[in-house]
Amino acid sequence: MVFLTTKVMQRTALFVTFGGLVTCLITTFLPLWKTMNSDLNEVENWFSGLWHTCLYTEEVGIQCKAYDSIMGLPMDLQISRVLMSVSISTGGLALLAVFPGLEGVEVCAGQPGLKRRFLILGGVLSWVSGLSTLYAEAMFSGWFGGLALVIGGTLFFVAVCMGDFDQRPPSVPNRELLDGGTATPRGCTPLCKQQF
């Protein structure tokens, strides 16, 4: 029994891509992009994220404050916001684009070429999403999210190739054509040729 079918590969790619998208979404909103700790004052720890800054003290706990204005942010923080937004949006579009191309979904039933194009589009969008994911300081979730999106896109490409392999016509064994245009197996005796 074969467990690795096109349908299983598509579902695995969908699961890995969805996991990578959720991980990138969590990474975007965590405030652990930069840590600023002072050696002189070990009681306070500053954490900076893409959307807010947090202060951790032992007495009070964590207190977060959103940035006052977009224009006052450093350029690297603005670029990071844009890239992570692109990563999340292309990852979401990859999931939406791939859904009609999945086996078992009746959206494009009877149109295998269109289903194949949807899977390829989803794989490309997943790759773009994974490659535009940023990896912050000590944010291993960003690494895993980007890697999962790239692996999910690759698995969509593998599923397309598996589907192409499954749709190939069966190969014809080597046969010699006789004068009458009929095919006989190679090395056939005269008695065998009479049967054909």
TrEMBL record:
<protein>
    <recommendedName>
        <fullName>Claudin</fullName>
    </recommendedName>
</protein>
<keyword id="KW-0812">Transmembrane</keyword>
<dbReference type="InterPro" id="IPR006187">
    <property type="entry name" value="Claudin"/>
</dbReference>
<dbReference type="InterPro" id="IPR017974">
    <property type="entry name" value="Claudin_CS"/>
</dbReference>
<feature type="transmembrane region" description="Helical">
    <location>
        <begin position="142"/>
        <end position="165"/>
    </location>
</feature>
<dbReference type="GO" id="GO:0005923">
    <property type="term" value="C:bicellular tight junction"/>
</dbReference>
<feature type="transmembrane region" description="Helical">
    <location>
        <begin position="79"/>
        <end position="98"/>
    </location>
</feature>
<comment type="similarity">
    <text>Belongs to the claudin family.</text>
</comment>
<feature type="transmembrane region" description="Helical">
    <location>
        <begin position="12"/>
        <end position="33"/>
    </location>
</feature>
<dbReference type="GO" id="GO:0005198">
    <property type="term" value="F:structural molecule activity"/>
</dbReference>
<keyword id="KW-0472">Membrane</keyword>
<comment type="function">
    <text>Claudins function as major constituents of the tight junction complexes that regulate the permeability of epithelia.</text>
</comment>
<keyword id="KW-0796">Tight junction</keyword>
<keyword id="KW-1003">Cell membrane</keyword>
<dbReference type="GO" id="GO:0005886">
    <property type="term" value="C:plasma membrane"/>
</dbReference>
<dbReference type="Pfam" id="PF00822">
    <property type="entry name" value="PMP22_Claudin"/>
</dbReference>
<dbReference type="InterPro" id="IPR004031">
    <property type="entry name" value="PMP22/EMP/MP20/Claudin"/>
</dbReference>
<feature type="transmembrane region" description="Helical">
    <location>
        <begin position="118"/>
        <end position="136"/>
    </location>
</feature>
<keyword id="KW-1133">Transmembrane helix</keyword>
<keyword id="KW-0965">Cell junction</keyword>
